[in-house]
Amino acid sequence: MKKYLPALVAGFGAGVLNVVPLAKSIGCCVIIPVAAYIALVLDRRANPSDEPIETGKAISMGIMTGLFAAVFGTFFDVLITLITKSNDLVASFPEMQKMIVDMPLAEELRNKVIEMLGYVVEQIRETGFSILYTFSILVNNLIVDIIFGLIGGLIGGKIINSKLQKS
Amino acid sequence: MNYIYGTYKNLEYQSAESRISVRVFIFLILLVWTAGIFIEFIIPKVHSLVYSLPFLKNMYASVCHQQNAKLIELWGHQTMVCARCTGIYTGGLASAFMLLFLYPKGILDVKFLLLAAIPMVVDVALYTAGIYNYSIYPAYLTGFLLGSVGILYIHEAVIKLIDEQKTKKEEN
To answer: Which distant-in-sequence residues (6+ apart) come within 8 Å of B16 by Cβ?
Structure first.
């Protein structure tokens, strides 16, 4: 576990930034890859070495950063939803509803999807929690953050090795 | 140090040309991811995909701000991510497609990746500073450039990873 402490620190930071609206808007898709790069830099500081970082290690650090970011990001998202009884899904529900209504779909299918979404939104408005929403953002964060962490690890490792080679 | 890099270099390019499966895999992953961006365009053809819409909207929200004014709109449908992100992913997909047929020789220097990012950074800086208004065209094109170059590095790193694992296995 100790060897993934840099990933834990960077993943925590990324998880927090992922729920801060302004940071999320500016950071876009670079928060997790940058966090993976920071995890690699922290690891280098903790274990100084002249050897290039192995790609396998860079990838595992990136994946772990993404994993921690997903877990913390989901936790903070659920916590904020619980307190405020609102979130992005609730805010975008009318827009989503309009989008589905405008689509050339069968009436029955359209109603089913809106009903399902409406049920989740109603649960969040009333109790601040929905198991379906929590599960979907956890799965979503795990997929996206791990992929982007992996990419950050790959490119971050390459950047660090390139600097090392030059020095 | 040079020896280690040299070893990587030789291993990498001896095996890279025969690694078509890696390139196909990268292409397919990107194809699925990019198709998700255009889900609104696909739903009228495959109606049952409408169930995935809320999930995909939420999924792409975690990698893009999805501001309405910055989405690409065609034939009454919008992309799931902004023009810049659409550029990055379609650029990556185009590059991954090219990699199926062509392969760049030589080690990729990290400075090319940084150079490819400069137009995008300049575009973001200029419109954020109010020098000109946001436009989807420069956003898309600068994103496309970065995405198409970025995928070459990801591909190179995946090949390197496979070679490292192979070397470790042989050593054991």
So the answer is: B103, B159
Say if residues A78 and A129 touch (Cβ distance below 8 Å): yes
CB contact under 8 A, A55 and B157: yes
Q: Given this model, what pLDDT does residue B21 score?
A: 86
Expressed in angstroms, the distance from the first to the final Cα of chain B is: 22
What single letter denotes the amino acid at residue A20? V
CA A160 to CA A164: how far, in whole Å?
Answer: 6
Contact indicator for B48, B40 with CB cutoff of 8 Å: no
- Rounded to the nearest angstrom, the minimum Cα separation between B101 and chain A is 23
Instruction: Please give the model's pTM, rounded to 2 decimal places.
Output: 0.80
CB contact under 8 A, B164 and A155: no
CA distances, A7 to each of A63, B105, B153 (Å):
9, 33, 22
Token pair 């290690």: residue: A57
Chain B contact present for A25, CB below 8 A: yes
Q: Going by C-beta distance under 8 Å and a sequence separation of 6 or more, which residues neighbour residue A36?
A: A7, A10, A61, A62, A65, A66, A148, A149, A150, A151, A152, A153, A156
Six token digits for residue B69: 């004014």
Both tokens of B154, joined, read 């990801």
- For A43-85, the pLDDT digits (tens) are 999 988 888 898 889 999 999 999 999 999 999 999 999 999 9
Say which of A50, A100, A162 has its CB closest to residue B53.
A100
Measured CA to CA in angstroms, residue B59 lies from A62, A72, A166, B37 at distances of 19, 16, 39, 10
Closest by alpha carbon to A148, among A5, A2, A17, A3? A17
Give the helix/strand (H/E) hosting B32: helix B20-37
Cα B168 versus chain centre, distance: 29
DSSP states of A89-122:
HHHHHHHHHHHHHHS---HHHHHHHHHHHHHHHH
**A109 contacts B110? CB cut-off 8 A:** no
pLDDT above 90 covers what percent of chain A? 47
What confidence category does residue B9 fall into, taking pLDDT thresholds of 50, 70 and 90? very low
The closest CB to that of A137, out of B1, B8, B58, belongs to B58
